[in-house]
Write a structure and sequence with these properties.
Layout: H1 4-17, H2 22-39, H3 51-59, H4 66-79, H5 82-94, H6 100-115, H7 119-137, H8 141-153, H9 162-181, H10 192-220, H11 237-259, H12 265-283, H13 288-307, H14 319-348, H15 351-382, H16 385-394, H17 399-414, H18 420-437, H19 442-455, H20 464-472, H21 479-502, H22 505-514
Helix pairs in contact: 1-2, 2-15, 3-15, 4-12, 4-15, 5-6, 5-7, 5-11, 6-7, 6-8, 6-10, 6-11, 7-8, 7-20, 8-20, 8-21, 9-10, 9-18, 9-19, 10-19, 10-21, 10-22, 11-12, 12-14, 13-14, 15-18, 16-18, 17-18, 18-19, 19-21
Organism: Thalassospira xianhensis MCCC 1A02616
Subcellular location: Cell inner membrane
Keywords: Cell inner membrane, Cell membrane, Membrane, Transmembrane, Transmembrane helix, Transport
Length: about 525
């Protein structure tokens, strides 16, 4: 059975489209086709002995530890209602322009993307807060719906995001595999920091594209996006700073630590989670002075521990070292006291419990998919699928660019039906090594794929942003209006992909400078 591997892939797509749980579908199809391959001598069943090693590799992967921490950071920020302050302030700042509310939604989406990375939380928050305001102002319902859905998806391309973390792990493995097959045994890897750095400018490029479209549409079709008539007036500089400063500081702490080489992505994710808890604690009634003092103590501790570390197990410590160590202990106690106070307030306000539940749910879904995908890819390779994929890519007209165009088209079409996690952990390990061996830069390739996967949140009928908005939108907004509203933004996404394709330096410049 020569094409058993392709039949296996088709069977998986069928099971998922029929509505079976994704993880069970992946594992079930893998087991069934492993048995068929063994029964027909198309696969050496001894290959399944490597499954335990693959699972252990996933469980011991330090990079993936950042996923629950970033998810926790985003959910805590969403529960602490920071989005409401941002939307209200930015709406007053830009609302008097044609399309001003739309610009506010995009900018708030970008800020929340960089500080939370959670698409669902952003779309629901803006659907409940900004969408009714835009409808009352006279915005075209389709345009308003499309704006909210699209701004929410920025959480997948602007770092930090779970998509970029999973993608960096997959691309790193693909890059190593491609080097092995090329006979290179001095292996280079792709880090999360490189993918984050590569995605930053393209993510901001998409923000500029969205805003340019809003301004042009507001100019040529002013009735679609009239200015806001508000009695609150424009906010003063103090109000703008108070609304923007907390998420901006969190962004600087997390991305600055990663891109500056100060911390690994996992360490930076823990900093982000602690920062989100401190911000939520202040909003829920914790003592502002205690939280600020504790935050300052933790910052001083982080800086000083890097400059002058003290290790008490050493035998050559001086009196000054003991004094310095005692100071570090005092700073740590102050920081712990602030964190404890914020956790107490967050628990009393039912923010912490719901945030932890959401974090565990999302994390379990992601890791279940990653683990079962390891089994699927192992069976697929055992059935000769890797060789078939390489043959398909090499036979594409147009050489490496033709093969890349074909793969991007396949990812785009699959995005209509599958989740980004499924595409990333099932399809990409099969096609990415071949594309890299054809000469495509792995970081640039990862960013192109990331923008393509971001588009899957918008494409009907299964785009997650569409479902999120449907659950939060006012009853006068129909599902048809939501679907019609995202169409121009899907076109803008495709345009953004071609911009990065034509100017690869947008994705490659910052990683080359920082790393």
């Amino acid at each position: 059975m020569e094409y058993l591997d392709l039949l296996m892939f088709a069977a998986l797509m069928g099971c998922i489209l029929l509505g079976f749980p994704v993880s069970f579908s992946i594992a079930g199809v893998a087991v069934i086709f492993a048995f068929i391959g063994w029964a027909t001598d198309a696969m050496n069943i001894a290959l399944m002995g490597a499954l335990g090693q693959r699972v252990f590799g996933v469980l011991t992967n330090d990079v993936l530890i950042a996923i629950p921490l970033f998810v926790l950071m985003g959910v805590v920020l969403e529960r602490s209602r920071i989005a409401e302050d941002l939307l209200h302030t930015m709406g007053r700042l830009f609302g008097q322009l044609r399309g001003g509310l739309g610009i506010s939604v995009v900018l708030v989406g970008a800020l929340l993307a960089a500080s939370t990375g959670i698409v669902g939380a952003t779309v629901i928050a803006m659907g409940m807060i900004a969408l009714p305001t835009m409808l009352r102002t006279g915005y075209n319902p389709k345009m308003a719906s499309g704006l909210v859905c699209t701004a929410g998806t920025l959480g997948q391309i602007i770092p930090p995001s779970t998509l970029l973390i999973i993608l960096s792990d997959v691309m790193s493995s693909a890059y190593q595999q491609a080097q092995y097959e090329q006979g290179k045994f001095t292996i280079e890897t792709i880090s999360v920091g490189q993918i984050f750095a590569g995605a930053l400018i393209p993510g901001l490029t998409l923000v500029v594209i969205y805003i340019a479209y809003i301004l042009l549409r507001g100019f040529f079709r002013p009735n679609d996006m009239p200015p806001v008539k508000s009695d609150d007036g424009r906010p003063d500089m103090g109000e703008v700073i108070r609304a923007i400063l907390p998420p901006v500081l969190l962004i600087i702490a997390v991305l600055g630590a990663i891109l500056g080489g100060i911390a690994t992505p996992t360490e930076a994710a823990s900093v982000g989670a602690i920062g989100a808890i401190l911000m939520a604690g202040i909003r829920q009634g914790a003592s502002r002075n205690l939280v600020l003092a504790g935050t300052a103590a933790l910052l001083i501790l982080a800086v000083m521990a890097g400059i002058a570390p003290v290790r008490f197990q050493r035998n050559d410590l001086t009196g000054f070292d003991y004094v310095l160590g005692a100071g570090y202990v005092v700073l740590a106690i102050a920081g712990i006291a602030a964190i404890a106070a914020c956790l107490k307030q967050a628990w009393k306000a039912d923010v912490l419990k719901s945030a932890l539940t959401s974090t565990m749910t999302v994390t379990a879904m992601i890791f279940a998919t990653i683990l079962t995908a390891s089994m699927f890819s192992l069976v697929f390779i055992g059935l000769g699928g890797e060789d078939h994929v390489a043959e398909i890519l090499e036979s594409m007209p147009g050489g490496p660019m033709g093969a890349l165009f074909f793969c991007m088209a396949v990812i785009f079409v699959l995005g209509f039906f599958l989740d980004f996690v499924e595409i990333t952990v099932i399809l990409l390990p099969l096609i990415a090594p071949g594309l890299i061996m054809m000469g495509h830069d792995p970081v640039w390739l990862a960013i192109l794929i990331a923008i393509n996967l971001q588009t899957s949140f918008l494409t009907p009928p299964f785009g997650f942003s569409l479902f999120y908005l449907r659950s939060a939108a006012p009853p006068e907004i129909t599902t048809g209006q939501i679907y019609a509203g995202v169409v121009p933004f899907i076109a803008l996404q495709v345009f953004g992909i071609f911009v990065i394709w034509l100017w690869p330096s947008l994705a490659k410049w910052l990683p080359s400078v920082v790393f």
